[in-house]
Design goal:
- The structure holds two protein chains of two kinds.
- Helix content of chain A is 3%, strand content 53%.
- Chain A has one helix and eleven strands.
- In chain A, strands 2, 4, 5, 9, 10 and 11 form a six-stranded mixed sheet that branches. Chain A has a five-stranded antiparallel sheet with strand order 1-3-8-7-6, with no helix packed on it.
- In chain A, strand 6 and strand 7 (62-67) form a beta hairpin.
- The longest helix of chain A is centred in the C-terminal third of the chain and has 4 residues, at 97-100.
- Chain A starts with a strand and ends with a strand.
- Chain B is an all-beta fold.
- Chain B is 0% helix and 57% strand.
- Chain B is globular.
- The chains are: A mainly beta, B mainly beta.
- Chains A and B meet through strand 4, strand 5 and strand 10 of A and strand 5 and strand 10 of B.
């Protein structure tokens, strides 16, 4: 099955700096890579995703990059703000509906702290 | 877009007691449904998933079970809880547009087994 590794497990940055979280996956058939943000005690929420036919995607201060050859993808947050503090999860899954029921395998999460 | 209702929000149960957590979905039909568990400071572990009524697949052998009696209802159960069952349980469903649009999660149930 798929295995997703996420690094670092904790990350502390100063407000305004950039933060980068990296994930690797094992199953070359995975082709959908979402990122979730989970604030303390709350549910994870999808913040951005990328598919295997795209190398990079950006949404305001958040960007994701994907290297299919190396089987790794990264989340980049620029101009970090205190409200970016949360746990971030990467995940990998296959898009084809009938092969694995859309199951996502998650990384263990990165706790990001943005210091004012 | 769909909404997931999950209850209770918190639960404290003694070892050996039964468990029933419920999840219902609004705003979509025939969703894929999932139960995940999140241990303290850890990632999300897939426990069960369902592609339709009565169809349950188990990812991790354990003393938990799941059922889907209706299209938009997903239940997680146990006959006898263990201390190791403590954690944050999340119900999720795939987006109405398809699995390529990520999950919507419920608000979660924090279970403490004492």
């Amino acid at each position: 099955g798929e295995n997703v590794e996420q690094h670092p497990s904790t990350l502390s940055v100063q407000e305004g700096d950039s933060a980068v979280i990296k994930c690797t996956y094992s199953d070359s058939a995975s082709n959908y890579f979402p990122w979730y943000k989970q604030e303390l005690g709350k549910r994870p929420q999808l913040i951005i995703d990328i598919r295997s036919n795209v190398g990079e995607k950006k949404d305001q201060r958040i960007a994701v990059t994907l290297n299919k050859t190396a089987k790794h993808f990264s989340l980049h947050i620029t101009e970090t703000q205190p409200e970016d503090s949360a746990v971030y999860f990467c995940a990998a899954s296959k898009e084809r509906w009938d092969t694995n029921a859309g199951k996502s395998t998650f990384g263990d999460g990165t706790t990001l702290t943005v210091k004012p | 877009s769909q909404t997931i209702h999950q209850w209770p929000a918190t639960l404290v149960q003694p070892v050996g007691s039964p468990l029933s957590l419920e999840c219902t979905v609004e705003g979509t039909s025939n969703p894929n449904l999932y139960w995940y568990r999140q241990a303290a400071g850890r990632g999300l572990q897939l426990l069960f998933y369902s592609v339709g009524i009565g169809q349950i697949s188990s990812e991790v052998p354990q003393n938990l079970s799941a059922s889907r009696p209706q299209d938009r209802q997903f239940i997680l159960s146990s006959k006898k809880l263990l201390l190791s069952d403590s954690g944050f349980y999340l119900c999720a469903c795939t987006d109405t547009r398809g699995p390529e649009y990520g999950y919507t999660f419920g608000s979660g149930t924090r279970l403490t087994v004492v």
